[in-house]
Design brief:
Four copies of one chain form a homotetramer. Chain A is α/β, with parallel strands linked by helices. In chain A, 37% of the residues lie in helices and 22% in strands. The longest helix of chain A is centred in the last third of the chain and has 23 residues, at 173-195.
Amino acid sequence: MTHVAIIYFSGNGHTHLMAEAVVAGAKQVSNTTVELLRITGDQITQGRWRDDEMLQKLNQADAIIFGSPTYMGGVAAQFKAFIDAASSVWFTQGWKDKVAGGFTHSGSPSGDKQGTLLYLMVNAMQHCMVWIGGTDVNPSSDAPDAVNRLGSYAGVMGQTAPDMTGKPAEVHQGDLLTAQNYGKRIAEAAQRWKMG
Amino acid sequence: MTHVAIIYFSGNGHTHLMAEAVVAGAKQVSNTTVELLRITGDQITQGRWRDDEMLQKLNQADAIIFGSPTYMGGVAAQFKAFIDAASSVWFTQGWKDKVAGGFTHSGSPSGDKQGTLLYLMVNAMQHCMVWIGGTDVNPSSDAPDAVNRLGSYAGVMGQTAPDMTGKPAEVHQGDLLTAQNYGKRIAEAAQRWKMG
Amino acid sequence: MTHVAIIYFSGNGHTHLMAEAVVAGAKQVSNTTVELLRITGDQITQGRWRDDEMLQKLNQADAIIFGSPTYMGGVAAQFKAFIDAASSVWFTQGWKDKVAGGFTHSGSPSGDKQGTLLYLMVNAMQHCMVWIGGTDVNPSSDAPDAVNRLGSYAGVMGQTAPDMTGKPAEVHQGDLLTAQNYGKRIAEAAQRWKMG
Amino acid sequence: MTHVAIIYFSGNGHTHLMAEAVVAGAKQVSNTTVELLRITGDQITQGRWRDDEMLQKLNQADAIIFGSPTYMGGVAAQFKAFIDAASSVWFTQGWKDKVAGGFTHSGSPSGDKQGTLLYLMVNAMQHCMVWIGGTDVNPSSDAPDAVNRLGSYAGVMGQTAPDMTGKPAEVHQGDLLTAQNYGKRIAEAAQRWKMG
C-alpha cells in the first residue's frame, strides 16, 4: 500500500478545488491511500504553525504533494508557517526520499505562479525528497478546458480571474483535469519508487 | 537627451514584434533616442558572441531593455551568448547604474516565462543596473486584448499559441499594448534617473 | 529630505545585526531619515499580520528595504505574513515607484539565499517598485572580512555557521560592511530618484 | 544494468573537475555504466548546437546529470545551446521519466549558483524527468574540506576563488567529495527507479 498525502492552504477556495482534483487522480491508482490535509489559520500562534497530528501523518506518507495559492508572488504565509515548522523534520531528514510534488492557483495566467512552484521544489530539495513534475507537458491548447493550458511543468497551475460578485469559487475544467492527472502521476511514481 | 537601447533575439518573429512595440512606446517620450539591436546567429562563432559595434551602442545607452524568447524554460542560447560576452563589460562595471528592463515570449500563457524574466533581473543585478518592472501591474482582464492579461510584473510577457500553418508570426493585441506601455515607462524612468 | 525604511524579521538576531548595518549605511547620507521596523510574532493573529502604524510608516517612505532570514529556502513565515498583509497596498499601487532593496541571512554560504532575494524582487515588482541591488558586485575575496565575500548581487547576504553554545548572534565583518555599503547605496539612489 | 550519463560544459576546467568527481561517485554503484560527455564550442554553428551521437547516448541513459559553470548568473551559453537543441527530444518527450540531476561551479560562494540549479530543474521538468537533489543536505561545516560546505540542496555546487596566475584549475576537496556522493546518489536512484 502506498500512502499519498496532500497538504495545502486555501484562502478563497480555489486551491481547495485543485487539491480535491489531485485527490481524485491519486485515488485512481490501486493500492493507494490518500490523505487530504488542510492548513488553517488557527494552527498558527504568534506566526508559528503547530499541528503534531498532521505532521505525524506526513511523516507516514510515501509521497507529499504541497499546495498553496500564489499570494504576492509566493506561497501564502500560512503555508510558509507550516513549512517553517517542518524544519523540525528537516534536522533529522525525516522526509528523505519521499516523493514530492506541488500545485498552485492565482488570478492571472502567469501571475508569478512559476516562482511558487520553484519554491516548493527548493523546499523539497532541502528535505532531500524526489521531485515529480506534471505529466501533461505538451499543452494541448490554451483553451479553458485543455489540459495544461497554462503551460506548467514543475507542477500544476490553476487560474481563475478574480470575481467580485461573491459567488462560490470555480476553477477551469482544464486546470482541474491537469490536477487530476498529476495526482495519478504522483501516486504511480510513489508506488514505483517504493517498489524499487 | 536620453538613450534607450533594446537588445533582443527572435527565432520565429514573435519576440521581434514585442521588441517593436517596446520601441514604439519608448518613442512616445520626448528627448529620447531609441536603438533597436537584434542578435543574430552569425555573430556567434564556436558558441561565443561578438559584435563590438553593438556592444559599444549599449555602453552609450542610459537604459537597456533585454528581450528573448523563452526556450526550454530560459533565454535563447543565442541571447545567452551575448550575455556571456558582456561579461567583459561586467569586469569594469561599465553598465553600472544604467536602467534595465526585460521582456519575453513563448507558446503558452505561463510557459516558464517568469523564470526568464527573473534571469534577466539576475544578470542586470550583476551589472549593478537599476531594474524597472512593468507598469500595468493590475491586470485589467485575461482577455486577448487586455493589458497585462498574463499577469506579469518583473517585465513584459507575450504569448502566442504555436501555429504550424506557416503564416507570419502574430502576437495578441493586449501583449503588444503592454510592451508599448513598458517601453514608455522605461524611457521615462531613464530620464528621471538621469536627471536626479 | 529622503525617507528610508527598513522592515525585517529576525528569529535569532543575525538578520537584526544585518538590519542595523543597513541603517548605519543609510545614515551616512545627508538629508535622509532612517526608520527601522521589526516584524514580531505578536503582530500575527490566525496567520495574518496587522500593524497599521507600521504600514503607514512604509507608505510614507521613499525607499523600503526588506530583510528576512532564509528559512527552508525562503523568507520567514512571519515576514511573508507582513508581505501578504501589504496586498492591501498593492490594490491601490500605493508603493509604486518607491525604491526597493533586500537582504537575507542564513547558516551556510549559499544556503538557498539567492531564492530569497529573488522572491523579494518578485514582490517588489508586483508593487511596481524600482529595484536597486548591491554595490559591491565584484567580490574582493571570499575571506570573512571582505565585502561581498559570498558573491551576492540582487541584494545583500550574510552567513553565520550555526552555533549551539548559546552565545549571542554574530555576523562576519565582511557581511556587515557589505550591508552598510548597501544601505548607503539605497539612500543615495532614493535621493537621486526623488530629485529626478 | 543502469546507464548514467553526465553532460557538461567547462570553460576553465573547474566544472570538468566537478564532472569527474560525479563520475567517480556513480562508478561506485555496481551494475552501472557511466558516460562522460563534454560539450564543446565546435559543436555550435551559428549559435546552434548539434551532435547527433552525443544526443543518442543521452537518449539511451537512465539518468542524465547536467553540469555547467555559472556565468553571469546562469548556465553557459554553450550549455544552453545544447539544451535548446534537445528541444527536438522534448517534442516527443523522449527523456520522460529519466532521472535527472545537476551541478555547477563559480568563483564565489553564493555567486548566483542557486539560479543555475533551479534552471536545470526547470529544464528537466519540461522533459518530465524525475529530479534528485543532493544527499548531503545538512552541511557538516563551512570549512573547505567539508561536504556541502556551501549549503546546496537542489544539486551540487563548487566554488573556487578566481586565480589570475595561470595555474591549473583546482576545486576544494569538500566540493569534490560532495560531487562524488551526488554521483553515487543519482546512480542508486536510477537503479531503484528502474527496478520499480
